[in-house]
Amino acid sequence: MFLFVVGHTVLSVNGVPVEGRFLQTDGRDVMEMLAMEENFPLDIKFGRPKLTTNEKIMLASMFHSSLISGLKFLVMADSRQTGVDILLKKLYEIYSDFALKNPFYSLDMPIRCDLFDTNLQQAMEQSERSGLSNV
């Protein structure tokens, strides 16, 4: 039994990255692999698809003007989702711990800290699993 979440895609099968419908190493079709019983058991990793460069540019240009006056955290969520306030508090806590307390970080500069990135990713994954849920 698989749990499919809307907006998620297959990221890898048995540790091999998937691009579109095909494995990156040998080009096999993932759907054909699922149809063949002799391929089981399979380790399938699901997640949100990576943004393309054009999508990143579009999002950056959309929010750039709102970020001129100082630091703001933006969370794009469905209005029916709960726990957004908890996520925002957690994001600020991570920012405080790994950026503001870092003597090498200066305001208005990109945050270049592996611990910040790791904790931010963990907070987002945790909120997807538990905190942000549809009502």
How many individual β-strands?
6
Alpha-carbon Rg, integer: 19 Å
User: What's the overall average pLDDT, rounded?
Assistant: 80
Number of domains: 2
List the helices and strands in order.
Answer: EEEHEHEHHE
* Number of distinct helices: 4
Largest beta-sheet details? 4 strands, antiparallel
Summarize the amount of helix as a percent range.
25-40%
Assign the structural class, choosing from mainly alpha, mainly beta, alpha/beta, alpha+beta, or little secondary structure: alpha+beta
Poorly predicted regions: 1-5
Shape: elongated
| Euclidean distance between termini CA atoms | 24 Å
Family: Belongs to the TRAPP small subunits family. TRAPPC4 subfamily.
Subcellular location: Endoplasmic reticulum; Golgi apparatus, cis-Golgi network; Golgi apparatus
Keywords: Endoplasmic reticulum, ER-Golgi transport, Golgi apparatus, Transport
Main location: endoplasmic reticulum
